[in-house]
Amino acid sequence: MMSETTARADAVWTFYVDTATSPELSGVGSYADEFELEDGRWRLSRRVISRG
Fold first, then answer.
1. At a CB cut-off of 8 Å and minimum separation 6, what does 52 contact?
2. CA dihedral of residues 14, 46, 1, 32 (deg, nearest 10)
3. What is the pTM of this model?
4. In this structure, how many other beta carbons lie within 10 angstroms of the beta carbon of residue 2?
5. Which one, out of 9, 16, 22, 29, has a CA that is 20 to 30 A from the CA of 51?
6. Distance (Å, rounded) from C-alpha 30 to C-alpha 14?
7. In DSSP terms, which residues pair with 34 in a beta bridge?
8. pLDDT tens sequence across 4-25
């Protein structure tokens, strides 16, 4: 459960190679991040990286 001092964010990424000549998709995946508010600043507390 998220609260006033915790947050969650999800992101999807793609990675391409040979972008100057013939771009080709090389990988895809996602990040599932959790943050905690500590001393007035948000800090990354957990990251789960999924490929595929």
1. 28, 29
2. 10
3. 0.76
4. 9
5. 22
6. 9
7. 8, 46
8. 999 999 999 999 999 999 999 9
- The mean pLDDT value of the chain amounts to 96
Residue 34, both tokens: 């959790």
Q: What is the largest CA-CA distance in the chain?
A: 47
Structure tokens, 21: 């000549």
Structure tokens at 50: 């999924």
6-22 core/surface letters (b: 16 or more CB in 10 A; e: else): eeeeeeeeeeeeeeeee
Sheet-wide strand order for 6-17: 6-17, 24-38, 41-51
Contact 9, 33 (CB under 8 A): yes
